[in-house]
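Hi all, long-time lurker, first post. I run a small reading group and we've been trying to get comfortable going from sequence to structure in the token notation. Rather than ask abstract questions, I figured I'd post a concrete chain and ask someone more experienced to write out its structure so we can walk through it together at our next meeting. Sequence below, copied exactly:
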Amino acid sequence: MYRLHQELIGLRRRHRWLHRARTEAVHVANEQLVYRSAGDGGRLLVALNLADAPARVPAPGAGELLAGAATVGGGSAQLPPHGWAVLAG
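-- Answer (accepted) --
Happy to help. Here is the structure in token form:
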């Protein structure tokens, strides 16, 4: 938990614009959520999967994986069970 906290604090420090960012839902399902945060020319996508099985969720404009775990391609992200990912947007 400590390492995860450090990783996310580092992500926040590298993207200082996040404290002024606007957030919008991209995909909302019973066990998945994808949202985009954007501001000052920067964008991030956050994808969450609460299901017990892997899930493919839409991730329009997703770039490299910045934190978490996912396979990205073709405008979507494959998340592991109970997985999450922060993607360059």
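A couple of things your group might point at:
The two ends are 25 Å apart (CA to CA).
Helices lie at 2-14.
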